[in-house]
Structure formats: C-alpha cells, structure tokens
Specification:
Blueprint: E1 3-7, E2 27-28, E3 31-32, E4 54-58, H1 61-71, E5 78-81, H2 92-107, E6 111-116, H3 122-130, E7 135-140, H4 146-152, H5 159-171, E8 175-183, H6 191-203, E9 208-213, H7 218-230, E10 242-245, E11 252-255, H8 258-275, E12 278-281, H9 303-312
Parallel strand pairs: 1-4, 2-5, 5-6, 6-7, 7-8, 8-9, 9-12
Antiparallel strand pairs: 3-4, 10-11
C-alpha cells in the first residue's frame, strides 16, 4: 500500500536545472520519491528519498507556478518533467497535480517536455492535442518482455501500454521519441531483444531514440544483481565494472567501460538504422563519445544548436495541427 503525503511546496519553482542536458530549462518534480519503484533508479541513494512505498506530493505546484508566471517579465520557453520522479505515476492525486500544472504552463504559452514510464491517460492526450507543437515527449522503454519489465519496473506501465501511449502521442502530432535507458549489456541490448523492440517502436511512429546503459550505485547494486540472477540474466563481468564519471554535475556510477559502450552504441545505431530509427546516447552519462546528445527535453532553443538537433531527431518539419488523426 503506497502512502501519499501531502506537502506545500515553497517558491520559487521555475529555476534552472543543474543537469547538463537540461540546463537551458527549469525542471519540476511533482513528487519527492516515485511509486514506479524501478529497481535501478538513482533516487534511492538520495538522503531525502522517502522509501519505496511512500511519495511526498507537492499539492500546490500548479498554483505556485501560476503566481510565478504572472510575476515574471520573461517566461521560460519550456519546462521539463521530471528529473527525479515521474509525472504520470498511477496515483490519482499525482496525476491531478501533474495535469493542473501542465495545463497552467500551456495556457501561459510555456512548452512542456517530459520523460515517462508511467500512464499517459486520455485527459492528457486531449490536453496535448490542443497544442501538440508545444509538447516534447520521451517514453522510456527497454524491453518487450513483460516478466523482465515487471521485475525491473514494478509499478510502471507495461511495454504494450507504453507503445500505445507513444502511438497516441504521435497521432495527435506530439514530437515523441523513445528512451532506451537503462539498457543491460547482453540482456536488453541483445539482438533478439532489442531488434523486436525497435520494430515495435517504428510501428508506433518513433523515428528517433536516446539510449544509455545501466549504472550501479551501492544503494541498489545488490538488489539489481539478485533480480537479474533470478531470470538468469546477469551481465558478464558485472562485478568488475568500474566507476565512471558522468558529465559535470551528474555524478557517476559503476558501469561498462567507455570503449565497450562506444562499441555497443555503434551496434545499436546500426540496428536502429535498419529499423528506420536514429539512436543517440545520453551525453550526460556518456561524455566524450562525440555524438549529438539525447534531446531529453526536445530540441534546444539556441539557434546554433537547433538545426543540428532537429535534423538528428527528425524534427525538421513541424507536426500536424491538433486533433486526433
């Protein structure tokens, strides 16, 4: 039984993010903690993590943002949901706050970007269909295997539900990419696993995807290894993974070496090309690989980067006008 603790957030909310991929945008966490319970999630190591069966919901988020926007002489161009939680958790209270907050932003002319493994319901689809050009969606998915998905992401949407959400978002004209993260070496990145997933993503309308590999921190390493052993899927050499630094401000974790990641990313890109999907690594977690970043919050607003990233992620043409196709 999940406990939802209601809290009042204190302003300001619309402040720049310290995450390299998101530094151009404010970010919002609707909750502290996340009910999806992904076993690999880095927030388990945070000192303020409330625990796996508890979330702190900031119930006044929408109202505070409305007040901030009314006072600001210059509004942010875009706001990102959510670096340390999921805005689409399967809790009515969380979904209500997420919906009201996104509606306030869109009504104020501020774009909304999000990454989710949760449940994008009909009312969100209706809301996004009114201004699809102002929404940038990324859906996390790494496997079509329901059993493995349930082990790794106990309360997240299932693979079929995520593919359905991707298809619906694409149908209404929302720029939607996939996020293959975290991939597990020789498990979810194996050809017989990733190739069918890429085919399914293509069928759902995906033209581009970001990718990154599993990293381990002490708080969840033992649990992660135990679950993988239970499905006979422990990556070779997992115990020998070395600590790798991420981009400035992102910390790091134990993961496969950079040379091995480079080789695997090249293979993924080739598989993606065969499926008609362009794949790029997350540069926060993979600095120095020399490829265009993952566009986690959509194309950057800066003129010097916009053309390159729009071309990379298939955004050169504007999406169709609102309304279901």
């Amino acid at each position: 039984m999940v406990e939802v603790l209601l809290r009042k957030r204190k302003p300001p909310i619309l402040t720049p993010s310290r995450i390299p991929c998101l530094r151009q945008f404010p970010t919002i966490n609707i909750t502290q903690g996340c009910v999806l319970g992904c076993v690999y999630c880095y927030i388990q190591g945070y000192s303020n993590y409330p625990g796996p069966e508890r979330v702190v919901l900031y119930e006044n988020t929408a109202e505070l943002i409305a007040c901030e926007l009314a006072r600001k002489r210059r509004k942010p161009c875009r706001v990102y949901f959510s670096p340390s939680s999921d805005a689409f958790q399967p809790l009515p209270e969380v979904q209500d706050v997420s919906f009201r907050t996104m509606a306030v932003l869109l009504d104020s002319g501020v774009e909304v970007a999000f990454l989710t493994k949760g449940f994008v319901g009909h009312r969100f689809i209706r809301l996004f269909s009114e201004t699809p050009h102002m929404i940038f969606a990324q859906v996390g998915i790494t496997t079509l295997d329901e059993t493995l998905c349930r082990l790794l992401e106990p309360r997240a949407a299932g693979p079929c539900e995520r593919l359905e959400a991707i298809a619906k978002l694409n149908q209404i004209g929302v720029r939607t990419t996939a996020r293959l993260d975290p991939l597990i070496p020789d498990v979810t990145d194996a050809t017989d696993s990733i190739a069918p997933l890429l085919d399914a993503l293509r069928e759902a309308g995906v033209k581009s995807a970001a990718a990154s590999y599993l990293f381990l921190r002490p708080r969840f390493t033992a649990r992660m290894k135990s679950l993988l052993v239970s499905v006979s899927a422990t990556p070779p050499g997992m115990d020998a993974w070395q600590y790798q630094k991420f981009s400035d401000g992102c910390g790091g974790g134990r993961m496969i070496g950079s040379a091995e990641r480079h080789r695997r990313f090249a293979r993924l890109r080739a598989l993606g090309k065969a499926a008609g999907i362009q794949i790029a690594p997350c540069l926060c977690k993979n600095p120095g690989l020399g490829w265009v970043g993952c566009a986690i919050a959509g194309p950057p607003p800066s003129a010097e980067q916009d053309g390159l990233v729009q071309h990379m992620f298939g955004f050169a043409e504007p999406p169709p006008a609102g309304g279901m196709v």
